[in-house]
Amino acid sequence: MNKHVSPRMNRRAFVIGSTALGAGLAIGLDIPFGGPAVVRAADGSPEINAWVVIKPDDTVVIRVARSEMGQGSLTGLAQLVAEELECDWTKVTTEFPSPGQSVARKRVWGDFSTGGSRGIRTSQDYVRKGGATARMMLIQAAANDWKVPASECTAANSVITHSPSGKTTTYGKVAEAAAKLTPPADVKLKDPKDWKLIGKGVKRLDTPDKVVGATVYGIDVKLPGMLNAAIKDCPVTGGKLKSYDEAKIAGMKGVKKVVKVGDSAVAVVADTFWHAKTALDALPIVWDEGENKKVSSASIAKWLAEGLDGGQAYVGNSNGDVKTALAGAAKTVEAVYNYPYQNHATMEPMNATALYTADKCEVWCGTQNGEAAFAAVLEASELPADKCDVHKLMLGGGFGRRGQTDYVRQAVLIAKQMPGTPIKLLWTREEDMTHGRYHPITQCKMTAGFDADNNLTALHMRISGQSIQFTLRPDGLVNGMDPSTFQGLAPKGDASFGYSVPNLLIDHSMRNPHIIPGFWRGVNVNHNALYVECFMDELAHAVNQDPLEFRRKLMKNNPKNLAVLEAVAEKVGWGKPAPEGVYRGLAHFMGFGSYVAAAAEISVTDGTKVKVQRIIAATDPGYAVNPAQIDRQIAGSFVYGLSGLFFGGCTVKDGAIEQTNFDTYDSMRIAAMPKVESIVMPSGGFWGGVGEPTICVAGPAVLNAYFAATGKRIRSVPLRDQNITLV
Amino acid sequence: MANLTINGKSLTLDVEPDTPLLWAIRENAGLTGTKYGCGIAQCGACTVHMDGVATRSCGISVAEAEGKKITTIEGLGAGSTLHKVQEAWIAQDVPQCGYCQSGMIMAVAALLNDNPKPTDADIDEAITNICRCGTFQQVREAIHTIASA
Ligand code: FES
Ligand code: FES
Q1: Same domain as A620, residue A477
Q2: How far is A131 from chain B (nearest CA, A)?
Q3: What is the CA angle A368-A369-A370, rounded to 5?
């Protein structure tokens, strides 16, 4: 536990500590739910506990530790607290606590990290307990005041009622007294069947500010005396900054300082960002690109291809004896696929604002992981934990990119060179595109064997390519293997393989080029689903079977996978004729604890112009906290997934990423948006994520439909490189 | 120096004539509702109205904007009254991260001004903003709701 946070936290220990706590946190965390010493919010209102502050006017402030990047967790988490709190939903506001406060209070808010679609599912238990505890204390305070047993009182809509006498009071009136009570030891959560707010598609709490331009994102921070910085990091990862000629930009308007940032970057600090960027563009810079300069997309592809046959590989899932089964097969089918580097391209480029003085370092930024950002501030500032803090702001998109802290570190390193002056560092889109944390690159060879009766008897899936954990979280490797590589392919767990094949081998030949990989919304299921689900379609056709029927036979042990697949098949009218010129494709997968499936209807002109007409998408996330937001996450998943499929490829030349902006790295526009019909079918009993899993079925469903339309298999992403476009 | 009229106010800003309007709005006028997304007129995050026409403010200079009536997201409604597009956005719960939405709303407001009952094809042609969160389905529904009101 982080109860023993040493004043000078070592970054690595801190991050490992946070990861290791992970999901166990929900039960293991010793969350002090209130207590005799009243903690007060900035305006003096009492905290009932860390999650709930109640003001005299009955306003309820719910603290949300996870980040809001568009996925709706802020609202969903507030719903969970409010459900148990029994407060008036119309009086709810929210607040992000800071990681520094959390550390100072023995990590009272638990994990801040918001990725892996776990914002809700891994904190649902303790945030609901936070709400329930607060409710019990408020009721107790009223009961004490009335000198009646608490058991005779009930709460609803922020009103406490003593049933026998009919007396009522409100949360705001008893909050002071409640905050002084000792929290109850035993807290019982509601039975899901009694939920009133959870499961309801309530409106997001953050919308009103967003439609008037009032939401403050990291890029919008304004501090007194603040200056602005633009940065260029070496275009080749691993390279260094050799020199720059400051004299050439001397006297340019607004320029205050040119600084080296670490050993690979240079920044110009000016009065405005525009001046900083203009001067930086004029600054002659010499890089020492190093060895990685020799790397290109072609050299990476060659290296990965070598991993497709034989050689050492980590085994992620196996049963039976694939080798023998393939050797004895009546028929074999083989196909090689590949999936490229992709940039997250969050709408808001990376940025952070830092203020450094000799005894304090504060950062304002959007981050998916407040504690990791905090750790980065400690490391870069070299100040102890009690002298640092991170103020979290709304994120203009995250998609996994803002879980990394490279931009936070840079901002602090610049601010350190100008003590006392707040510095806002903003990346240009070009810097953002070329210094991403890219979707890992992989190739995959699929080999299948059939017996004489066309039964699938063997399947070998060999993935060759990059591991995210190898670079970003080496402590997550198990004897060198990256278990997350097998996301959606694992024998069990919350990202398990949806088929039973008598002889199965899924293995990974790890090859890590220098391009830094990252967690790209959906992560490893994106390529894994594409490989598996396109190949299943190939196999069905190879034995002249209907793709749904073919899968069904292999899914007897996976009823939840089958349920979502059948739901989309039925709704799309699978097995019945499609409209003239319209072709269909199916895909399903499991990831982030949820079961997802898609049926795509497309039409194709000239073999190159693909119109995705309609997508039916089903999700079983176990429990659905806010179905309206899930519906939006599903629709949005197809924008992200299809943008990736058609346009999303980052190529490497001379060691650097070639795509620099949306002109070369395009993204879907409204004209290409298919009609998405979602089926949210929570079967209960488990908590799955919703922000990511659906993305992975977008690609294979459309590619399978493309085959139905054209008879051509596409096994390489993005389609842009084959002159196929989304219209 | 440039003299700009933004949201009905005349402002004299200390900027060079070739400064993109976007940065003058954000940094010199201090109106941060207008967003930077690409700087090359590709994404639409910086969309404002110039004499009522939806314009990507990163792609024009303050010199070109002088003498024009510029409206940003902060000036779209009348005082505390929201514009009908903003209202529809709330009713339909359109924004996700919201970062693209200032530009999206400005583009839609201009479209509806020219064409109060746009067809899907009209929407496809006029609205070319990027939204990485993927709010297009809600955007389209919200436009049709306004058009049929
Ligand atoms: S910032 Fe102007 S169009 Fe992207
Ligand atoms: S709402 Fe996030 S980019 Fe559009």
Answers
A1: yes
A2: 26
A3: 115
